[in-house]
Structures are given as structure tokens and as C-alpha cells.
Amino acid sequence: MKHEFFDRGNPPEKVYRGFVRRVKPGEDVHCTVVSPVFWNCHVHWMGRTVPCPRDRGHCIHCKTAIPRKYLGYLYVRNESNGKYEHLELPLDASHDLLDAIGKEMDLRGVRFHAKRRGGKKTGIVFDLKARLEQVAPGFELPSDKAPDEILGYLWQINAAKLHLWGGNDLPPQGEVA
Ligand SMILES: [Zn+2]
């Protein structure tokens, strides 16, 4: 039996599995948060991203003093395109956002505009807006989604080895890696 695909002689299309949203200079990100709390992880850069367990005693890279970095994720509705995405935030920005909202508050339904002040190394500024229930009562957000699938794909690692944790118990600001 002949297959149309082979007849055309085209390679299979690369399956696009997505991305994580970052706040880039000059690019405003308008979103509504779906996650009730942050998704958190630590990583090492070893030419590629390698997840680090929360307990550094269990990490061979920490033992050899390779710096590690915190990454925070929120599942959000991108208000610019109506799509659901994972927003990635560095430690300082995650702290700033939680300080502005209140650590004990439910993040689900929080709306904000995020933008970078100037260059890449400068901080992210959040402009908090009225919560979703105030501007669109009855709007149903979907269930929260952990970033394990997308990170596993982007970092080419088994999602079970990501060492993600959920909660607003972020590492202290200025934690020396
Ligand atoms: Zn480590």
C-alpha cells in the first residue's frame, strides 16, 4: 500500500510542543493567573539546563559548587492572545509579585501587566490590575497545569526528574547560588 507521505517525499513536520513565556524587554505581558500558587524549581546550567533537587545535599552539581538558579512558573491566560501559557519568572520578580499581592493570597484570578525596565539584566515591573472576579464575574478559568510536560520537553529530561514544587515558599531573595 502506498502512503501519501512517502509519495510526497517530505520529511515529517517537526511537532511544535510549545514554549514558556518570558518577559522580554519592550514586550508587555498581560495575564490572568490560573495557578493558585507558584510552581518552583532550581536548575543548573551545564551547557544545557539540568534540574537541581531542592535539597542541595542530594545534588552532585551543588557539591561541586556549580551555581544554581531559581525559576518560578505560573500557568496564565495571556490576555493578548487568549491563550494559556506558562510564564517563567526569575527569583526577584517572583518575590516582587508575591510581595505586591500578599503571600497568603490566592493567585488564581490575579491580573497584571509585566514589563522589563530597559535592558535584559534589569528587573521586571508588575502593574497589578483588578482581580478577574471583579472585572469578569463568572469567567471560568481552566484547572491549573504544572509546567512539567513543557519543561521536560524543552530541557529534554524525564518530567519526573524536574524536582518541581508547588507553593509560595520561595527561596530567600538574594540566595547565593
Ligand atoms: Zn544542585
Largest sheet descriptor: 9 strands, mixed
**At CATH's second level, what is the architecture?**
Beta Barrel
Number-wise, the strands total 9
What sequence of helices (H) and strands (E) makes up the elements?
Answer: HEEEEHEEHEEHHE
The residue ranges in which pLDDT falls below 50 over 5 or more consecutive positions are none
Query: What is the CATH level 1 assignment?
Result: Mainly Beta
The radius of gyration is 19 Å
Ligands and ions found: zinc ion
Fraction in beta strands: 25-35%
Shape: globular
Explain this structure to me?
This protein is α+β, with helices and mostly antiparallel strands and 177 residues long. The protein has one domain (18-166): Beta Barrel (OB fold (Dihydrolipoamide Acetyltransferase, E2P)), CATH 2.40.50. The chain is 18% helix and 28% strand. Strands 1, 2, 3, 4, 5, 6, 7, 8 and 9 form a nine-stranded mixed beta sheet that branches. Strand 7 (111-116) and strand 8 form a beta hairpin. The radius of gyration is 19 Å and the shape is globular. The mean pLDDT is 88. Bound molecules: zinc ion (ZN). The site of zinc ion (ZN) has 7 residues, from helix 2.
